[in-house]
Amino acid sequence: MSSPPKRLRKHSQNEFISLMISSKRLPSTSYNHITELNLSNLQLIKIDTFPFEYLPKLVSLDLSYNQLVSINIDWSKTRENFIEHLNVSHNKLETLLFLKDFKHLKQLNVTENFLRNTERFLSLHLCSTIEHLIDSNHDQIDDDQIKLDQWLQIIETKIDRLWALSYYDKYKQEIGNEKNHQMVKQILDDFHHAMIKIFEKQTHFSQMHLSPLANYLITNKISELCLSLPKIQTKKSLKTHLTEDFNDLMDVKTNFEPIKFLRCHQTNESDLTTISVRMSLFEPNTSQNILATCGGQKVCFIDCDTCEVSHLYEVSSLRSATTRKIKDKNSTINSEYFSCLCWIEITEGNEPLKVLAVGATNGHIYLLSHKWKIMFAHIELPSSSISCLIWDPSQPTTLVTGSYNTVRFLNIKPYLDRFRSFDRKQNKPATQFDYVESTLCENKISSTHVYHFDNGDDTVINITDLLFYPMSKDTNILLVGTTSGLFIIHDQTPKKLTFPKSMWTIGEYIESIRLINIQTRLIAINILGLDQIFCFDLEQSLPPSPQLHIILTLSNPYRQIATKMDVYVTTNENDNNNGSFECIIGSDHGSFFYHQIRMNAINNKKTKKATFDNKRYEITWPQVKTSTTTIITPSLLSANLNENYLCLTTSNNLICIYKRK
């Protein structure tokens, strides 16, 4: 007995389409085994309904080379379809809204249709399962994910804010009155038009009001906002999951006052306190107070002036963006957690471009642009867990990573060149991409230099922190903190800097390395399990006598959990050797030490040293009970300072923002 056919012969196809058009009932078992259906070149003009119910195993449908002007948006509504491959190329379609009920679609071919630019990239939002979008215009395909990211960013920030500030109160007031249906409709219509105007101000989204798919998605967004009425938070009452009087309980005796404690890295609203926010970092060399944080499966950008999360990235969305280019069957999203951050500055015209590099525990690195709200590069280092990242200012296209016992130098020039080209095109829409290197589609890149660290025995060494020190205009030394001491890379072989024998330490687990002053060559390190911070003169600590020349120690809370300290330096305009610096470091039990140190340089022909006036404050953190749970005193994992704010991150998903008084 022959097996049932999986494809229709040509005469069967014609029979099938004639039955479909005439709405005759099909035999219930005739097509049960069909997996592929070719209805191309049949001069079809429109499709109102499609009998997916009679094709339960259909996964590939070809409607190419017809005259299709429209496909009913509800053509598959009566029964779930399992289509994975759909070809509608060489037709006259103007919208892809008919894809709204496709939940399994992986490949879509839309070549040669009358689609507006918005239709294609919005189809990626309508069908998040799409992995391959085929079109003859390949340059446009490269832009689709970027445009979708911009669309989502506008939805998440400007649209939500517009609703909260201008329409929420009106809608809330009228929705309770059954007689005011017309007024409610008018409010929602006005909001819809206002959304369209916001989008159409963007270069890529002109004439969006003519897009059926865009209007459908906007209507869905409005419905979502209306349904979530009780949860709407205005700008003045940003949800932080803490009691209103929490900040008032803080015992603050320094130059900082708490302005907002918030949680934004949780996986879901029912589990707010199990995520550790590993690191925070202010955007450098800017008047904007943008803070980047990483922890769990999220990277957040926070505007400290408004205490709002201006944008966030999740592992699932980042990986879905990259898998449109590359499909990694062995990757496990649930095992990917963000662990470290690094800002990169590249030159482009008069305005430097800022890039945030984010490392993850499974060896993945993402390059993000806060300016354009996009992820533009994805790098994968096999068999790695990224613990720290640093950028080399003397070699702007080099990114250095620390993973396990290995330091790698990566050449990221192809990614940065393409990003420069994208930025030029955004600023001048008429500009064409002048960089078309395929490297962007390759997430595995080679290392220019690789260094392995060991003690010469069986002890395990892991890299904990990295710092470049400028020895001259063109020469940098890389300091490498490890779980077994401090190393430098100046030539081909890493060398260890030993501690003075008079200074006994329980271990040499370097938690963080910070540059204090270039003129006095001052570096600060903190060590796990030790109650002091060491400040040493790097130049006097270098080979041939590689021993730390320590000139200052600061009190340091004892810790069993590693934490990143931060140093902020202010210099005297008339004398770069004079100035002051602040040092913040946290503890296991919620308190942190705040040091203010004033440097007085004494220079003469024979000697060059610095004296210090040190003031120390310790701030305690009371345990606070909310209406639903008890806030357990957290461990502070990182600190970051700029001229206006202090940020602390914790082991229980808190981001604590302080403002200078």
TrEMBL record:
Domain of life: Eukaryota
GO biological process: chromatin organization; establishment of protein localization to chromatin
InterPro entries: LRR_dom_sf (IPR032675), LRWD1 (IPR052489), WD40/YVTN_repeat-like_dom_sf (IPR015943), WD40_repeat_dom_sf (IPR036322)
Gene3D superfamilies referenced in this protein's UniProt entry, alphabetically: Ribonuclease Inhibitor, YVTN repeat-like/Quinoprotein amine dehydrogenase
UniProt GO molecular function: chromatin binding
GO cellular component, one term: nuclear origin of replication recognition complex
Classification via PANTHER family: LEUCINE-RICH REPEAT AND WD REPEAT-CONTAINING PROTEIN 1, OPTICIN
Name of protein: Leucine-rich repeat and WD repeat-containing protein
Organism this protein belongs to: Adineta steineri
Taxonomic path: Eukaryota, Metazoa, Spiralia, Gnathifera, Rotifera
